[in-house]
């Protein structure tokens, strides 16, 4: 999914492993999901200081989404993927091919037929 998202980026797009802040003269404009995650324990250290300091955003605007938000969200998703890949555990970033990869030990082929069979067996189990 991350590699598919990369295909939709402009040529020469650079993934950054950090939170992109607005330009110097611009106030931060959090994504709608940022407001939803605000205050959650696992998001405590995720947002930069003053990320929610723009008091010019009305309550109604917080969840109103402009079409331009999709580019910012795409950038955020790719940055998070890059950050996860930098740990080298479950996901990898290949700088030469400019693609995300899975470590060899997790690169297994899943037989969908057996999964469907297992799922059918689970559905027929008595509760």
How many DSSP-defined strands?
Answer: 2
State the low-pLDDT regions, or none: none
H/E series, N to C?
HHHHEEH
Indicate the mean pLDDT: 83
The largest beta-sheet arranges its strands as: 1-2
Structural class: mainly alpha
| Domains (count) | 1
Task: Please indicate the percent range of residues in DSSP E strands (runs of 2 or more).
Answer: under 5%
What is the first-to-last residue Cα distance? 36 Å
Helix proportion:
25-40%
Characterize the main sheet.
Answer: 2 strands, antiparallel
Radius of gyration: 20 Å
Number of helices: 5
InterPro entries: TPR-like_helical_dom_sf
Describe it for me?
InterPro entries: TPR-like_helical_dom_sf. This protein has helices at 2-7, 32-37, 59-62, 69-85, 112-123, and strands at 92-94, 99-101. By secondary structure, the chain is mainly α. The protein has a two-stranded antiparallel sheet with strand order 1-2. The chain starts with a helix and ends with a helix. The model has no long low-confidence stretch (mean pLDDT 83).
Features:
two-stranded antiparallel ribbon; TPR-like_helical_dom_sf; 127 residues; 2 strands; mainly alpha
Concise account of the structure shown:
The protein is mainly alpha-helical and 127 residues long. Helices cover 35% and strands 5% of the residues.
Give me the secondary-structure topology.
Elements: H1 2-7, H2 32-37, H3 59-62, H4 69-85, E1 92-94, E2 99-101, H5 112-123
Antiparallel strand pairs: 1-2
